[in-house]
Structure formats: C-alpha cells, structure tokens
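Homework help board

Subject: predicted structure for assignment chain

Our instructor gave us this sequence and asked us to write out the predicted structure in token form, then describe one feature. I got the tokens but I'm not sure how to describe them. Can anyone check?
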Amino acid sequence: MIFDNPLKPVQAYNIAKVTGVEAIDRFQLILEIFARRATTTEAKLQIQLARLRYELTHAKEKVRLARKEEQPGFMGLGAYEVDVYYETVKRQIQSIREKLRKIRKKRILHRKRRIELGFSSISLAGYTNAGKSSLFNALTEDAVQVDNALFTTLSTTTRLVRLSNKKFLLTDTVGFIDRLPLTLIEAFRSTLEETIYSDLILLVVDISEPIDIIEKKLSCCLETIERIGASGIPIITALNKIDLLPKIEVQRIMESLKGKIRNPVPISALYRINIDMLKNEMLKKLANYIQASLTIPLTDDSMSFLSWLFNRADVKKLEYKGDVAHVVFEAVPWFAEKVRKLVENEFKGEFEKTLQVKENA
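My token output:
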C-alpha cells in the first residue's frame, strides 16, 4: 500500500497491522525505484546515503517500537538503544560520504580536464521520462540506455558532440520529479552539479501529455534548476515527442506555454525531427567564439602543438611559409587566451585576436 504523503514508522506499522499489507510512503517508493535503476557505484552509494539519512530522522520512533517488541530488530544491531542506533547509522553515513568524496574528487578532476580541452559544456535536464536520453542519442549518435520508465538515467554520461565544426561536451543527467525529497536532492547533488557547471541547459519537456501535466512538470523542472543554483545559465526548451501530436495541437500547446518557457524548439528526439533547428538554436546561445590568428616557428614541438590545436579548436586556415606556420582558428575566449600564452611564451610566436564570430542560424 503506497501513500503519497510521508508516513511515520508507527503509522506504517499500524496500517500494516490492520490490513496485513506492507505500507510505504512516496519517499520510500522513489528510493526503491532508484535502487532498482542504479548501475554505477556512485548512484548506489547516493541511494544508500539517502536511505540512511531517512532512517536517522525516524530513529527515535523505530527504537520505541522495537522496545515495545512491536517490530523486529533492525539493521542487524542486536540492541535497541537510541544512542547505539544513532552512532551505527552515523558511522555508516560517514563511511559512504567519504567514498562519495573520493568519487567527487575524480569528477572535479575530470571536469578540470574537460575545461583544459577547451570545450563548452551542455547539460540535458528535464522531468524523468521526458526523453532526455533519446535526445542525447540523437545529438551524439550514441546509444545510452533508453526506456519508457522512470529514472532510467541515475548517473551522468558525457560525450563529445560536433555542431557546425565546433566541439561541445553534452551531458545526460538524472531526471527531476515533482516534490523530490530534499534528502534525495542532496544525495544526488554531485550528479546534478554537472548542470551547475554547464554553459547551456537543454530543458527537455514531454508535450504529448495534457497541458496541466506539462505545466506542472515544467514548473517542477524550473524550481529544481533554481534549487541547485543553475537558474542563471541560458536555457533552450526542447518540446519533445511532437510525433505523437497533430501539428495544430503542437502549435496550441506552444501558444499556451508562451511566457513560461525559454527559447522553445519543437522536436521529436526519437525520429530526429527538427534536430537541426535545435542545433542552430544551441549554436546561437553558445556563440561567444572569437577568431584569432597565430604564427609560430616550425619545430617538432610546434607540430605537436598544431595537432593539439586541431583537436580542440575549429581551425579555419593553416599555411606553411618557409620555416613558420600561420593558423587562423575559432574558439571560446578563455581557450584562445590559453593558446595566446602558449604561442608567446613557449614558441616565441605572434598571436592576434581578430573578430567576434557570429553564427548563422
């Protein structure tokens, strides 16, 4: 028996005693779905952390019930004192947090490494089962797991995508859900952090549902983005699953959502409808590239440098003149600045910023 509102242990016990059926609340249901969907070590640890923090908030009541012999021993402690129970759970929480800290350090190192590569980052966000993973596959031509079920993605997946000869990092993240308990938000914060550090958010919205459901889920997504501190990041709203609706209905829904959504683009991730339109909109939002030119002497080290530059920037022109190489490339400003320092300090070459690049939609 599942209750939408929170249940205290004594309530769950009394209901189960009367009905003969186990009673759980919404939080426990979400936790169970998360547990079944988790595949990575990090996701499993985050779920354990959320479960233990939930246990800790209900410790006194569970101990009282256990003392009355109204429920069996829990967590294999063999003792029912509150302080014993508290200390045991706290030690387990501390152990899991330490493991998550180590994973977080690796994630930070990976993020720094990606920044060094010079790529802007894009995060997919949206309500669970809105079609984020399908859109991820459409944009990357990859094959991450896609399923018509809740929380198919519980950990992040990042891939390199190319838009108009420019490279970006696209990350698929965990789906949002209405009234997601704060404990779970905090447990999955390291996963959601990928959204905080992105340059653009692709907010995926399933518009095949009734308008009131769409508005409710959209509101939930925007509130969650604000709660994790990502509200200042540019957003493109991908109105997904238009293949399930007549064109006139899509237009009606877009009209109803006017003023509530930012930069809407109607798409079908599954059938790749309007994906090019979406890519153009993404390029416009990420159009902070500058064009620069450099001239460096030809050496073994400079040839390696040029190969490195080709892999990380959009090289427009390369000319060899005698014993020097002349290059024109486009990149984000901070990466161009990094190239300038290398050219002037390491190779004693010349560097010049030429113009701000404007994308053609």
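Reply (TA_rk): Your tokens look well-formed. For the description, you could write something like this. Residues 70-80, 143-147, 149-154 have pLDDT under 50 and may be disordered. That's the kind of observation they're looking for.
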